[in-house]
Design brief:
106 residues, SH3 type barrels, 21% helix, globular
Length: 106
């Protein structure tokens, strides 16, 4: 089956896509050493182990404001089993089994 391609225009749309799709693969450039990273990740708390859930209430409006300002997305890495940051402006693509989402050039 061919994978369709769609464009993601902004960091909030990127975050919402991860939430909606449950498990995604993201390819991006790490800020620390400029290496390429491919990560399987989620924002679905039914998949994230309870011991890795945040200790406080989740403030979605605050997360979205920071996301829009800093363009850093915090996701749960399913392979490394921990929270990681993705710099939205360094993302090449987000992929699901049926869809490939490319990031609009900044």
């Amino acid at each position: 089956m061919a994978v369709d391609s769609t464009i993601i225009d902004n960091a909030i749309e990127f975050w919402n896509t991860i939430r909606a799709e449950k498990v995604v693969t993201v390819k991006f450039e790490k800020k620390s050493d400029k290496s390429t990273r491919i990560m399987r990740c989620t924002l679905d708390f039914t998949i994230i182990p309870k011991e890795d859930h945040p200790n406080q209430n989740i403030n979605i409006p605050k997360i979205l404001r920071l996301l829009q300002k800093n363009k850093i997305i915090h996701v749960y890495d399913l392979d490394k089993k921990g929270w990681r940051s993705i710099p939205f402006d360094k993302v090449e693509y987000l992929k699901t089994p049926k869809q490939l989402y490319k990031i609009k050039a900044n």
